[in-house]
Amino acid sequence: MAKNKQLKPQTLEQNTSIEAEKKQNAKVKETKEDKKEKKAKAKKEKAPKRSRIKETFGELKKVTWPTFGKTMAQTGMVIAVVAIFGVLVFGIDALLSWLFGLIAK
Questions:
Q1: Prediction pTM value
Q2: Which residues contact 32 (CB under 8 A, 6 or more apart)?
Q3: Which residue segment(s) compose the domain that 34 sits in?
Q4: Pairwise CA distance, residues 36 & 20, whole Å
């Protein structure tokens, strides 16, 4: 029986050392993968880029611009909505001023 008690701690130590080795191997693999990712990013950054101005004009060519008539119609709608809300706010302000004038007397 004495031999069995002595063997168990040794096997536990062996198991823990094996687990520690596995963890170290996993860390090494992770660092290798990280290095590969960093190299890939560096290659992308080093790749020749078109100038920003050319890219901007290229994107602007893809835009579907509205016609002049449609732009004027939308502008008219915006002006009309702003005018309606302006009159509404002015009316509420005038009403509240009149009510507070009655209360203050």
A1: 0.43
A2: none
A3: 1-48
A4: 25
